[in-house]
């Protein structure tokens, strides 16, 4: 849900509201791979429960479903509880692409369904010197999250998602293929849209994904989450 504390930024424009995760991923600004892993050492991870069957393990680009509670390390006060929002449903988000604070993106890597973790995140990987007044997080706050992971699924930039659009199997997405996909999504969600919405979204998708401007979204351009090799 928009406005929840652990999310780094609000969702995209209303233009894509109601569409699938796959289409929203195409509309989102591409997530670039970030260099350096030294920051990962700053997140302290304590495994509270590890299932005997630990598969699949989460990785960048996966779609995760989890509950988490957030506490201030300074006094132990709770500032966030996912169970009190969205009728208590666990949160869905794509891992490692900035949909949640960086510390959570790091803390939830290599985690398996059913696993529970307690993680301590320094200010530099949370809300930094500014804090987050709306979420009652003061400046320079170290955060503690208790996380329970329920599901690890293929994300919206997975091989399966790419192949769903790539009807002719040539490992690149043409305007015709994206256009057909848009028509199917519009029909599926049944929302009324201005006739120009189709062309506007199609243009936006290619603007954000066709980096070399050749009129196609290649497997490499599409797979910015580095989920799998296409």
From TrEMBL:
Protein name per Swiss-Prot or TrEMBL: peptidylprolyl isomerase
Gene source species: Machaerirhynchus nigripectus
Top EC class of this enzyme: isomerase
Keywords: Calcium, Endoplasmic reticulum, Glycoprotein, Isomerase, Metal-binding, Repeat, Rotamase, Signal
GO MF: calcium ion binding; peptidyl-prolyl cis-trans isomerase activity
Transmembrane segments: none
Catalysis: reaction(s): [protein]-peptidylproline (omega=180) = [protein]-peptidylproline (omega=0)
GO annotation, cellular component aspect: endoplasmic reticulum
First and last residue of the signal peptide: 1-33
Domain of life of the source: Eukaryota
Domain annotation EF-hand: ranges: 153-188, 197-230
Enzyme Commission (EC) number: 5.2.1.8
Domain PPIase FKBP-type: residue ranges: 61-153
Entry coiled-coil feature ranges: none
């Amino acid at each position: 849900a928009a406005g929840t504390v652990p999310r780094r930024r609000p969702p995209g424009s209303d233009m894509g509201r109601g569409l699938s995760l796959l289409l929203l991923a195409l509309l989102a600004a591409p997530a670039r791979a970030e260099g350096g892993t030294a920051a990962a050492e700053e997140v302290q991870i304590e495994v509270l429960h590890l299932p005997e069957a630990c598969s699949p393990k989460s990785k960048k680009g996966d779609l995760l479903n989890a509950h988490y509670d957030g506490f201030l390390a300074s006094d132990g006060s709770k500032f966030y509880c996912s169970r009190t929002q969205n009728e208590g449903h666990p949160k869905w988000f794509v891992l490692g692409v900035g949909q949640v604070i960086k510390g959570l993106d790091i803390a939830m890597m290599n985690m398996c369904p059913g696993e529970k973790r307690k993680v301590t995140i320094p200010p530099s990987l949370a809300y930094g010197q500014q804090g987050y007044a709306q979420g009652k997080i003061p400046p320079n706050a170290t955060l503690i999250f208790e996380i329970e992971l329920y599901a690890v699924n293929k994300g919206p930039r997975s091989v399966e998602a790419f192949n769903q659009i790539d009807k002719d199997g040539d490992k690149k997405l043409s305007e015709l293929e994206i256009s057909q996909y848009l028509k199917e999504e519009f029909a599926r969600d049944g929302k009324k849209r201005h006739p120009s919405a189709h062309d506007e979204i199609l243009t936006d998708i290619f603007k954000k994904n066709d980096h070399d401007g050749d009129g196609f979204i290649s497997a490499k351009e599409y797979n910015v989450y580095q989920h799998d090799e296409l």
